[in-house]
From TrEMBL:
GO cellular component, as recorded: plasma membrane
Principal subcellular localisation of the protein: membrane
PANTHER family assigned to the protein according to its UniProt record, in alphabetical order: AMMONIUM TRANSPORTER (PTHR11730), AMMONIUM TRANSPORTER AMTB-LIKE DOMAIN-CONTAINING PROTEIN (PTHR11730:SF114)
Protein's UniProt keywords contain Heme: no
Keyword annotations: Membrane, Transmembrane, Transmembrane helix
Membrane topology, record value: Multi-pass membrane protein
Domain Ammonium transporter AmtB-like positions: 18-176, 180-291
Compartment(s) where it occurs, according to its Swiss-Prot or TrEMBL record: Membrane
Protein name, UniProt field: Ammonium transporter
Membrane-spanning intervals of the chain: 9-27, 66-82, 102-122, 134-154, 198-215, 246-271
Length: 321
């Protein structure tokens, strides 16, 4: 009973995190209306994908690394790929500022308090929760230490990069690879979501395949059937062995990535419809003009201005000829 109640509380929290991760890719590049529509489409698809992966394929994704982190990251990247603009890549004011970096560390510190419980809340039985908490702390600690080392190593003066440190709790040293998307693929990722959520999500999927192959049933006893209920001899009368379960883990990862990319591309195309895509080419960071409306704001004001300019041009040509 308690476990079911926790799942009901945890599930909407996890799905909402999917949208927040996607927004991290597109932050400052879309209007509020576009974000609302994106949240509607993505939430619907994320719930469906979660049902397929967890309830149909019976993939072990306890912390939802595939459904939440990988799905949200690549959904956003696919949507950004469709809606990218050349001038966005040429903006100068893309970096962070000192006080913003310091305040963002508050969120990084809070992760040390809440992330273990996020991963462990819906695990069963009790020893599985204990393993989830310990493994989460060990992963965060090793990721943070490694990031400090690598961040200093790649800097010419041996300094620490605050962006790397912020990302270390979630994704460890992989945050250092962020500029590749911008330079090679012309794909702007505002918050570095690809390295912060995407790569760790894929790594989690790969490791889940390896662990499924390496599990020794005699070492876990009946606890194993809580992790993989469709193993041979489990409560669900399944016929899976380690190799078959590993294939299902691979299928789950493929399902999450494929649905995220296809869904993101389709959603990105929908959001590029002219009546929705009213983001002017930004001359300032994050295009604040799209978020702070004047008193005479009109939903179709952009097109009214264009119409007025067209009429003025016709009058000018009429006077000339």
């Amino acid at each position: 009973r308690t476990s079911d109640d926790l799942r009901r509380v945890w599930f909407p929290h996890g799905i909402s995190e999917v949208v927040l991760i996607t927004m991290g890719v597109l932050l400052g590049r879309m209007t509020p209306v576009q974000f609302l529509l994106l949240a509607f489409f993505e939430t619907s698809l994320a719930v469906l994908v979660d049902h397929v992966i967890v309830n149909i394929l019976h993939v072990n994704d306890g912390g939802r690394s595939l459904v939440v982190h990988a799905f949200g990251a690549y959904f956003g990247l696919a949507a950004a790929l469709v809606g990218k603009k050349k001038n966005v890549m040429e903006m100068d004011e893309q970096g962070s500022i000192h006080h913003s970096d310091l305040f963002s560390m508050i969120g990084t510190l809070l992760l040390w308090v809440f992330f273990p419980s996020f991963n462990a809340a819906v695990q069963e039985p009790e020893d599985a929760r204990h393993r989830a908490i310990m493994n989460t702390y060990l992963a965060m600690a090793s990721g943070t230490v490694t990031t400090f080392i690598l961040s200093s190593f790649v800097d010419n003066l041996g300094r620490f990069n605050m962006i790397h440190i912020q990302s270390s709790t979630l994704s460890g040293g992989v945050a250092i690879g962020r500029p590749k998307l911008e330079k090679r693929f012309k794909l702007f990722d505002t918050c570095g979501v690809h390295n912060l959520h995407g790569i760790p999500g894929i790594l989690a999927g790969i490791f889940s395949i390896i662990f499924a192959l390496g599990y020794e049933p005699e070492s876990y006893g009946k606890t194993l059937y809580h992790i993989y209920p469709y193993f041979e001899g489990g409560p669900m009368n399944g016929d899976r062995n380690r190799e078959i379960q590993a294939l299902y883990q691979l299928a789950g990862m493929g399902t999450a990535l494929a649905s995220a990319i296809v869904g993101g591309l389709i959603t990105g195309l929908i959001l590029q419809i002219r009546i929705l895509n009213q983001v002017d080419d930004p001359d300032t960071t994050h295009g604040d003009i799209n978020y702070y409306a004047q008193s005479e704001f009109n939903f179709l004001s952009k097109y009214e201005r264009a119409r007025e300019q067209e009429l003025l041009e016709r009058e000018r040509l009429h006077e000339i000829y």
